[in-house]
Amino acid sequence: MMFLLVFFVLISLNVIPALGLKTHLPSASSSQDLKPQNKAVITIGLNDALQVDGVDTKISELSSRLNLAKKNGEKLNVIVNSDRGVEVQRLVEVMDNLKQNGFESISIATRKP
């Protein structure tokens, strides 16, 4: 199964609402606004904190929470909002979980330097 990973720079506060965990996004030199209609925001904070649209969750519950966010069976656009201090292994675990559960439209939030 082919996994498509899409990197987008999200700089609009409307795209990533200020819900739950405070994060310091990593920076990227290129930018592209993304305003998907059907989206869910996964926030990965320090100390293994994990949220879906501002609601605390565990990685084992991630797929079921995202399936609830789908509207009328439409493809869900998942935005991963990870603090720059989060270990890469934690980000890989979340991305792997998304891949295994069929989520293919994934963006990683960054900011302009």
From TrEMBL:
InterPro entries hit by this protein: ExbD
Q: Does the keyword RNA-binding apply?
A: no
Give one Pfam hit by family name.
Answer: ExbD
The terms under GO molecular function for this entry are: transmembrane transporter activity
Mention one GO biological process in which this protein takes part, according to its record. Answer: protein transport
> Keywords assigned by UniProt?
Cell membrane, Membrane, Protein transport, Transmembrane, Transmembrane helix, Transport
Chief site of localization: membrane
Q: What membrane topology does this protein have?
A: Single-pass membrane protein; Single-pass type II membrane protein
**Keyword Transport, does the record have it?**
yes
Q: Where in the cell is it found?
A: Cell membrane
Q: Name one GO cellular component term.
A: plasma membrane
Similarity comment:
Belongs to the ExbD/TolR family.
- In Swiss-Prot or TrEMBL terms, this protein is called Biopolymer transport ExbD/TolR family protein
